[in-house]
Amino acid sequence: MKRKNVLLFASALAVAGAFSLGSAPAEARPVVTIYATTAPPPLRAERAPPPRRGYVWVPGYWNWAHHRYVWQPGRFERARRGYHYTSPRWDRDGDRWRYSAGRWDH
Prior knowledge:
The chain is 20% helix and 35% strand.
C-alpha cells in the first residue's frame, strides 16, 4: 500500500510539473497595482558597476513590502534585442502613490 501511495504522489508531481512548464512564457507577469499613502524616500546614491556585455544595469529603487518602503539594490538584467528597459517608479495619484514596475518596452 505504501508503494502505491508513493507512485501516486510521484505521478501527481510529474503531471503538475508538466502543466507548470507549458502554462505561460517566462516574460508573462500578472499586473499588480500597488498604492502607498506616503511618498517614497529619496533615491539612494548608487554607483553602477562597469558595464557588462549583453546586460543592462537596472538602478536601485524603493519597493513596497509589509506596509513600508524597502530598498531594492541595482542589478544587471540580460539585454533583450529590440527592447529597452524602463525602470520602476512611483507616481502621485491623488492623495496616494502608485507603483509602476520595471519592464521591457519594444
